[in-house]
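Chapter summary example: a protein plus S-adenosylmethionine.
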Amino acid sequence: MDKTGSVTESQQQTHLESNNGGNGLQISESETSSRPPVNGGNLPLKRTRDDDLDYPTKRLRTQEGHSSKVAAHYNELKECGLQVRNESRIVHLRNFNNWMKSALIGEFLDRVRQKKKGRIAVLDLGCGKGGDLLKWKKGRISKLVCTDIADVSVTQCRQRYSDMKTRCRNEDVFSAEFITADSTKERLSEKYSDPEITFDICSCQFVYHYSFETHEQADLMLRNACERLCPGGYFIGTTPDGFELVKRLEASETNLFGNDVYSVKFYEKGKYPLFGCKYDFSLEGVVNVPEFLIYFPVLVEMAKKYNMKLIYKKTFREFFEEKVKNDEQKTLLRKMQALEQYPAPDHSKLTSDKEEDYEHAKMFIENGQPRLPLGTLSKSEWDATSIYLLFAFEKLP
Ligand SMILES: C[S@@+](CC[C@H](N)C(=O)[O-])C[C@H]1O[C@@H](n2cnc3c(N)ncnc32)[C@H](O)[C@@H]1O
């Protein structure tokens, strides 16, 4: 890493050797055990929100040109509506991820408000179809810029915003702007309607890993995320945890791991280049576009170039355990049905029909007298979601 925080040519070519005891990627016993979380007294409240992640619902067709492949993939995702999503095998995983994003966004809006009064402007980098619009409305921001590589998603996001505004006629809804751009290849600052705009937060949810194809791309996306942040502003997001992925890969006998909900296939095992370390991620049997491993310490170093300091990096478990102590977040957890009710309510079934998916909940009940029903995730869903981490950087003055 040079003085500006850039990764030098030779570092770009460095490979991380797993379990080599040297300066490569160390795979320690994970502090995130594989046991899913359980939460007592989980009577769900009715879910009314329709915010969601853009999960794949179709098979990947092409193999050439990565950026256009990403755009084509997300453009072809169908908007399937709340009812279909509620019937999905991974409904609680989706809701759980959404709750995590809500808690992260809420925390950093609070932090911004502790520092300043007045208008809050946000950049949603890789906004998808606008799964977080309601979170920004709830957070009472003044301005949102939504940007994504997939033009169909941006159009749907714009439509969703316009529907939201119509629905909330009597409420004060933030103003919004929509930009279709490949943030790994284009400067966003040349595209804003207000060329002087600055942001209090850049939110990059389940996106940044697409940029780690090359150092150049990762750097430009980072620049887009950070260069218009005001001093004290935040770059927050969620992304797969490179350590966790490599740990699971190394524990597997093949170059593949996963379960009936998700699977990850690496192209190479044992060598993990800092950039371009490609793997295929599939959810519910559907192959997503290839993703790239992020070795987090590299991101921390690269961010220094943009005057960004890491505030924290947390696993999903760490963040969940911290946030669930807060009553407001706990209520939201129930409202968003982010955990599955165990045992299942009368006349309904658990989302997984595999008994071992709920072994942890059964044991939790046997080992104590918790208030029932519990809130939990099936083991398969937990294994899929616990791949991710949350991060937050702050712009130094
Ligand atoms: C898993 S989706 C997440 C969407 C949204 N952030 C959410 O949490 O619901 C990943 C998004 O990243 C976008 N994306 C991937 N590569 C991108 C790039 N180079 N520039 C801008 N957006 C990109 C995709 O089009 C997709 O909408």
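Key point: The longest helix spans residues 91-115.
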